[in-house]
Design goal:
The chain folds into 3 domains: 146 residues, Globin-like (Orthogonal Bundle), CATH 1.10.490; 57 residues; 143 residues, Heat Shock Protein 90 (2-Layer Sandwich). It has 13 helices and 7 strands. A 5-stranded mixed sheet has the order 2-4-5-7-6. The chain has a two-stranded antiparallel ribbon with strand order 1-3. About 3% of the residues have low confidence. 62% of the residues lie in helices and 12% in strands. The longest helix is centred in the middle third of the chain and has 58 residues. The chain is elongated, with a radius of gyration of 30 Å. It is an alpha+beta fold. Helix 1 runs antiparallel to helix 4, helix 6 packs parallel to helix 8 and helix 7 runs antiparallel to helix 8.
């Protein structure tokens, strides 16, 4: 009997013992495993061990290793990783620990049963376990993200109705009240609800971007000058302070009014949050024959070159040059909108000149304008 076939037979005949020892260790050392039913806890691991047996009995070891991505063994580990993501409160480190425990117990049982396995078999089993850990952890991360995204989208959708109702109520109070104090308070409430609505829409559209890499919407004729003036009125209610608008006047383009407004709101609110208290937010608009050029400027802590390269790619929650909060969804969505409109967005930042976000949007689309 070959060494490899002997190892496979010992593993096959002692599989139940290996699983029992593994389960005993898992419930003691992994908090998420405590109190779980055996069938749920073991998940796809019995099939994983059977796949190890099949790999050991294969005639050509190189074929097994080359074809690992398609092997039944890795199918089992994907199932295990997926199952753990759905079985709260597992973490990725706990999934990895499960495989480390299983490998440790498997080698110990093979040694106790005096299986005749050589160095090449040990290396093969170790490689298979390492690949299993990688696949299970990757699948765990993917499924966990799907679950988190679904939860986030559900919350965002559920929030839209009460926020809209609250905003409508505040609007009614603002229009019908004769008290100056009440009107002022109602205006604050309306702006707060608008901010919340904008955040919800940012979440929903950012997830759309992640799924399709591009936003899609109908275009309409817009005057970006008028949109910016309206935005500044709202921003003064929310942030107070100074907003300066430098414009060449009416600037018409074939874009999308709703998304154009949200893109500019995100840039202006970002500048308002991070400006120095004694300095204004300056919005500049100029036009050429083919483009509209928008610039949003403030003075504040400069953005490092490394952050400039990353800030449109996704949220960054770290201590940085500007703020401990980092970058949120607003800049990601702003870039998504600009890209969908066929434009370009960039940032320049220094201590001396401040920070300027620059957006260039083509005014002519498909022969229009």
């Amino acid at each position: 009997m070959s060494s490899r076939r002997d190892t496979a037979e010992v593993l096959s005949s002692n599989m139940q013992e290996i699983l029992e020892q593994w389960e005993s260790r898992a419930v003691r050392e992994i908090s998420a495993a405590y109190g779980k039913d055996s069938l749920v806890l073991r998940n796809a691991l019995p099939n994983f061990l059977e796949s190890l047996v099949a790999a050991l009995t294969a005639q050509d070891r190189s074929v097994v290793l080359i074809a690992m991505d398609e092997a039944e063994l890795l199918k089992m580990t994907r199932e295990h990783g997926r199952g753990r993501a759905e079985l709260q409160p597992y973490t990725m480190s706990q999934v990895i620990t499960e495989y480390h425990l299983l490998r440790e117990i498997l080698f110990r049982v093979l040694k106790e049963k005096k299986a005749r396995f050589d160095l090449s078999e040990r290396e093969m089993l170790t490689s298979l376990f390492e690949e299993a850990v990688r696949v299970a952890a990757t699948e765990f991360a993917l499924v966990l993200r799907e679950i988190q995204d679904h939860l986030l989208l559900s919350i965002a959708h559920d929030l839209k109705s009460p926020v809209t109702a609250t905003q409508a109520g505040a609007e009614w109070i603002r229009r019908s009240s004769g008290s100056e104090v009440t009107v002022s308070l109602a205006e604050r409430m309306v702006q707060s609800m608008k901010q919340m609505t904008g955040l919800i829409e940012n979440i929903l559209d950012t997830k759309r971007l992640e799924r399709s890499d591009k936003l899609e919407f109908l275009r309409d004729e817009c005057d970006v000058d008028a949109i910016i003036r309206d935005i500044i009125v709202d921003m003064k209610l929310v942030y107070g302070g100074r907003f300066e608008f430098l414009s060449e006047g009416q600037t018409i383009g074939f874009w999308n009014s709703e998304f154009l407004r949200r893109m500019i709101e995100n840039l202006v609110s970002n500048a308002a949050k991070y400006r120095r208290p004694d300095s204004p937010v300056t919005i500049s608009l100029r036009r050429s024959e083919h483009d509209a050029i928008l610039e949003v400027h403030n003075f504040g802590n400069p953005i490092s070159a490394s952050d400039q390269a990353e800030m449109f790619q996704g949220p960054r929650w770290k201590k940085g040059a500007r703020t401990e909060k980092g970058w949120g969804l607003g800049l990601v969505l702003a870039k998504g909108i600009v890209d969908a409109l066929g434009g370009a967005i960039g940032v320049e930042s220094s201590e001396e000149r401040g920070t300027t976000f620059r957006v260039t949007l083509p005014r002519r689309v498909a022969g229009k304008l």
